[in-house]
Amino acid sequence: MHEASLCQGLLDLVLETITQQTTPVKKVTEIVCELGPFSCIEPTTLASCFELFAENTPCEGAKLTLTRSIVTYTCQECGYSADLRKRLFHCPNCGSDNIHFNGGHGLMLNALRVDTEE
Ligand SMILES: [Zn+2]
Question: Residue 101 Cα, ligand 1 centroid: separation in angstroms?
Answer without folding.
Answer: 13
